[in-house]
Structures are given as C-alpha cells and as structure tokens.
Amino acid sequence: MSGVKTLTHLKDILKKHVKAGKHPAYFVPSVWMDQNFEAPIEARKVNPHEFFLNAIESILSKSAEASVVNKGKNGDWSAGAIVYNLFVRLGTAFDHNQNGVLDLPLNRDDFRETGTFLKSIALLPYINALGANTIHLLPITTHGADGKKGNLGSNYAIRDPYELDEALSEDFYGFGVEKEFKAFMEAAHHMGMAVVLEFVFRTASKDSDWAAKHPDWFYWVKDSVTDRPSHSSDGNLYGSPVFSPEELKEILARQKSGNFENSIPPSQIYRNMFTASPPAKFVRKDGVRWVGQLPDGTKVRIPGAFADWPPDDSQPPWGDVTYLKFYDHPDFNYIAYNTVRMYDPVLAQKTNSKNSLWKEIEGIIPFYQEEYGIDGVMIDMGHALPKDLFSAMERRAREINPNFAFWEESFGPTKESRENGYNLSVGYFWCDVPVPDKLKALLDRCATEGLPLPFFGTVETHDTPRAAARGERDDSEFFWVLACLMPVVPYIHGGFELGEKVPVNTGLGFSAEEIKLYPPEKLSLFSATALNWLGSKPLLVMVRDMVRFRRANARAFSELGPETFKISQKGDEVELVREFQGERVRAIINMQKREIQLLEGRR
Fold it and tell me: What are 127-150's pLDDT values in tens digits?
C-alpha cells in the first residue's frame, strides 16, 4: 500500500471523526455516492465523515488498475485517453447545507462549499463510471488579487506556480492542501487514471510573488499612465498597442510568411509608457499591487496583459495578469506581438535571455512530477513560449519520466507541434463540428491526410459556450457520438454530461451580447458557482454508453491515422468506418435534424 500512503493517512483521520460521532447536516448529489446515471439526481443527506471515508475505502478496496500511461512512449499514451476535464473549484462545488447559496469561504459548519481535492477524491468513482481514464485539471496554484475579477479571481492569474491554492483544501480536517492533492493523485493512480495538470508559463498575476525579488522578470510602466477602458482604441492610454490598417496588413502578411525580421513596433507613444525595471529594494506592496521607484524618482507599476494575437483582437483586457519578460533588449522594452509571441530575431538571442527566469520556469514541471507524480501537463499558450525554453522543459520532464505527456492549448495543431514534442492539442473539433460544411471537411481530412497531432473530441471547453446552450439535447448527443467515433480523443468538459448551460468563461465564440449576459460575477472562472447537479440527467447515460462502446471495440479505435478511418456519403447519410487489425466498426450518421429513410445498401 506504499503507493497510497497519504491516502491511507487521510482515511485514518476520517475514521477518528467517524468514531467521535458528531457531525453536521451535510448534503451531496446522490450520483456522487451511487453512480446511478438512470435515476434523477437528488441532494442526499449524509454524515460527511462517513461519506468521505466510504469513498476512500471503496477506492482502496479494489486492486490497483493498469494505467493508460503504461502504453506507448514519449507521452503518446495521450492518443488513447478518454479525458474528463475537472476544474476543482467548480467541479465539486455544492450547497452542502442547503441554505440556497454557496457560503464563502466556509459554511456555518466549517465545511467548504466550493470544490476541494477531498471532494474530488469522492468524485473519482463517478468519473471512472463515465469511462474516463485521464483527468485534465485546470490550474490549481495560488492566484492573485491585483485586478481580481469576481469574488474569487481566476486560477489562471498565477501568483506562485510552486504553491497550491489553499482554498482547494477541506480545512475542517486540517490535512493541508499539499497532502490533500497528494492523496487525490494516489487515489486517481490507484484507479488507473492519469492526471494531466494545466499550467500558464508566459504570464503571472500582477501581484506575483516573484516581483519582489526579481522585478527584472516583468515589464513596468509609469504609474501615471492610465489604463484604456474596454472598447476604446485611444492610443494615448495603456492597453493593446494600436496599429494602423496598413501596419496590421503588413503584420498579418509577415506572420503568414513566417518572416519576423524587422517586425513593426508599436507607436512611440506606446513604447514611452514602459520603463526600466526598478531595483528590488525599491519595490513594495501598495495594497494588493506592486509598485516600484526608479533611481530618478519615477513611480512605476506592473501593467496588465491583453490578447496579443491578432493585434486587433477585441477581447477585454486581462487586468489580473501580466506578461513575463523572457528576453531583455532596450529596443524591445514593451509588450506586443513581437515580444511575447512572434519574437523578433534581434530580440530572441541567447544573450538576451532572462536565464534566471527560464531556470525558475524549467523547474516547475519536475517539482510536480517528483512531489505529486503528475503524468503530463497542458501548457496554456505553449506554442507562444520561446522554443529553447520549451525544449529545456521537455527534456527535464522526460528525464524524470520518459512517457510524460505534453498537451498544448492550440486550436490549429501542426506537424511542428508534434516535432516539438507535443502529444495532444485542443484542436478545432469544438468550433468545426457544429457547422455542417466544416464538419464534412473535418471528416474528409481525417479520412485522407489525417491530423498532424491528435486533438480533443469536444464541442465545449472552459473558454467556449456550453453545448447545451447551443441547441437541444439531441445536438449534444450527436456531438458526443462523433467524438467517440472519429479519430480524435474523447474529452468530457466537466458539466457537459449534466447538460450544464452556464459557461465557465467567455473567451471564445461569444457575441458581445452574450458576453454582457455573463459578467465575472456569473462565471466560474472568477466567482463561486456550482454545476447544476440535481434532477434528471439523460445525457449521462449516453456519454457513459458511448465510451463503453468505444472500449468494447478498443482495437478498432486504437489508431488515429487515416488508414483506420473511412467515410462515404449518400444524401444526408454519412457512413463512418473505423478498422484496425481485423476489427471493424461501422456507423451511419444522419447529418440533418429530420427523420430520414436509410438508403438501399445501408441496412
């Protein structure tokens, strides 16, 4: 039982609380307990100590399962993953005392109603029952307060990537967040599930702990500079640099050709907002923000970030994070597309590298491998990291675990991604499948040239509209069937299986009107919210059964190349065939929202 030492210790603590006999009224969704997907889910009253103890004992009572990680090499096990995406803070949030609100930070009985690792351990049998063999965790580290949105702030505004978010621990038991996460990892591994942890490496919260000792790792602007409000293009205020139509045309043309030499800089007005880094001894906290002073007395601050591509992106400013300064050159002391993504060749020289920052970042993944045993990482905007930095990160991680996985948050995976060491990508299933013409093109591509890199089979992520909000239940079922039949990696974004309609964030695919409907106070990425767990959830059964079907025909689905996938179309019918090593699966897909008669030869 050495592989579950921390989990066993947690079990012993829970036993003491059960023996003490005292417990508050505590409610959980019934499906967390029985994994009964056919019955309506109800709020079930339990003894919390017994509930958590029973969950852990149930996990430990079974022999350790073989992990998907044992297959392939260099992280290629990712292609055989069935992924459940868990945002811990949201995924196990629940109104445990049934008073109608999520109490913060604790309820009257000193239990946390936002999600925790302990509750996530109890959720593992549910995730396992859905058929997932891999868990993708959104960021779990400490996050900042400067520019915080909502009542909690974003987990992507990372204050210290080496420290876990204390709010993800169940304080009642005093186990501590580090041990609680370690117990979660042990439980998941015991059940044969891999865990992939998401990180953000090119940004940090504006009040990052690093700024006090290493102000040179950050960009600084004059404190007198005013931030530009949303929907403004006033170039005299700080925000995304404003380019003329002619400049934009030239920048886009150069990006398409891959020529970043002599890149077009932002205006002189914009560049003059930036200053040198203040000496560390002159950096201090002013409330929740860092401020500094230059030797000449100029007061400076760390600026917020923004979407850097395309240069005229309309996303609201990211006021809670800032870009890290990977290179230092006097001619490029500003934040723009050519300093944080498509690095100008003059800037991207080894002599300009911030070596101390690079080494600090290179150590993050090995720390989580050695301390917690994570099986892979999803890198937010990983394709925008300096190539030499990513290569060093990959090398160190795979020295520890040769089968460690690297996933990238890219919507257009390329052969270069594969060559750079990535195993899996977000891809474009989410935006192409709901559009008939794009779906047909994707099917054709899978059957002819194949995909340069496996990507997620999902029509929703934490940044997109929910599938249930796009259409009826039939649409979600259709999307999931395709995700399980096509040569992609089935990916359950937590809440999809419940028919959840409220998005986590409004980053991609939202109209201006839709964004107004979901201010930070209503979005899980920034505020305390819970999934709609209760009631009848018919999609649960279909999600589970399609995964079972895929697993029952595992050989036919084991390879993702074009030679294993064939399509043919007659009228509104598309025939899909998956075949490998003598095992064959054939499916007829109705591409229209109306009843059709199967054509001759299809029966």
Answer: 999 999 999 999 999 999 999 999
Among 303, 322, 353, the domain-final residue is 353
Angle among Cα 271, 276, 277 to the nearest 5 degrees reads 130
Kindly state whether residues 255 and 110 are assigned to the same domain. Answer: no
Q: For residues 313 and 393, state if they share a domain.
A: no
pTM given for the model: 0.94
Read off the CATH number of the domain in which 469 is found: 3.20.20.80
Task: Name the percent of the chain lying above pLDDT 90.
Answer: 79
Helix (H) or strand (E) holding 210: helix 210-213
For the chain, the domain total comes to 2
38: pLDDT confidence band, cut at 50, 70 and 90? very high
For residue 254, give its domain range.
Answer: 210-353
Between strands 283-286 and 141-143, the pairing is unpaired
Judgement on whether residues 189 and 222 belong to the same structural domain of the protein: no
> Strands of 573-580's sheet, edge to edge?
565-570, 573-580, 583-590
Q: What is the pLDDT of residue 413?
A: 84
DSSP 493-527: ETTGGGT--S-S---SS--HHHHHHS-GGG-TTTS
Same domain, 462 and 490: yes
Q: Flag whether 594 is in a domain.
A: no
Does 588 reside within a domain?
no
Q: How many beta carbons lie within 10 A of that of residue 381, not counting itself?
A: 17
Cβ contacts of 37 within 8 Å, gap of 6 or more? 31, 129, 537, 540, 541, 544
Start-to-end CA span in the chain (Å) = 53
Q: Label residue 598 by pLDDT band (50, 70, 90).
A: very low
Which of 461-479 are b and which e, b meaning 16 or more Cβ less than 10 Å from the residue's Cβ?
A: bbbbbbbbebeeeeebbbb
Q: How high is the mean pLDDT of the chain? A: 93
- Asked whether residue 460 falls in the same domain as residue 387, the answer is yes
